Amino acid sequence: MSKKIWVSVIAIIVIIIGIVGYTVKGYSQKSNVITLGSVTSDADIWRHLAKSDEAKKLNLNIQVKEFTDGLTLNKATAEGQVDVNAFQSYSYFQAFNKDSKDGKLAALGTTYLEPLGIYSTKYKSVRDIPDGATIAIARDLADEARGLKLLEDAGLIALDKDVGALDGLEKIKSNSHHFKFKEIDDTTGGRLLHDNGVDAVLISNSVSQAAGLNVLKDAIYYEHINNHTSSNVNIIVTAAKNKNNKTYKKLVTLYRAKASQQYIDKKYHGTKTEVIKPISYLKGE
Which residue ranges run through the membrane (predicted)? Predict the structure, then answer.
């Protein structure tokens, strides 16, 4: 075989090796991508974290997929269409696992408590709200149950001991102040603050921020991190079969990184209160 033919053969072999190596590398990178499902502001947070230096240091390749419906996202996670999700409270997670026929989820770690607040333009304290006043509360079951617990924590009502994450007004055991409750779409809470027929409104943090409010400054009462609110702490979850996945657990480390928290605190004005607690804390253990 001539020298020219040998050179050509060697060149072809080198090209083939390069193509195969590039393909394998590309496949490897793609296979290491973590698909993280999220919603609204949480999706924005994770899009930022995915591009951060901290993610690179942890060798995390994150692709964020935004959903508009939490139930659909949980089903997609349980079925493996999404690797991990970050959007829900521990109580929502528990309720899903209890009723799910699409597989179970496992909690990887805690992220934050986003306080639900009681707002009023008429009264400066929950103690000032008069008997017979009208209080607006979200009709969505998860939000309604959480709102009722906040009202109980504020000393305004008493609930049955067995009140669950998806229970509603029927679980009010005592309403000694004879409050009237107006069930609303949570997104209208900001507008109802100026409704003469409403004395106080329970508004989620995402909605209050959209209305230009800061729960830590403008609410007359809001959730704090304690035993009464532990079930409202947000978590990162995955399918139950992946509960020991070390790479997925790095997402908790990424979220808690100093630079990550500085970004979140600045962007959301301190209203996403970081919670560094083991999952056992949420279980009441």
Answer: 6-24
Nearest CA to 236 out of 206, 207, 276 is that of 276
The domain made up of 32-113+230-282 has a fold known as D-Maltodextrin-Binding Protein; domain 2 (3.40.190)
C-alpha to C-alpha distance for 83 and 58, rounded to whole angstroms? 17
CATH topology of domain 117-222: D-Maltodextrin-Binding Protein; domain 2 (3.40.190)
Q: How far apart are CA 77 and CA 84, in angstroms?
A: 6
Tokens representing 32 are: 């290491």
C-alpha–C-alpha distance, residues 81 and 249, integer Å: 18
Q: What is the pTM of this model?
A: 0.78
How confident is the model over 22-66, as pLDDT tens digits?
A: 443 343 344 489 999 999 889 999 999 999 999 999 999 999 999
Domain boundaries, the chain: 32-113+230-282, 117-222
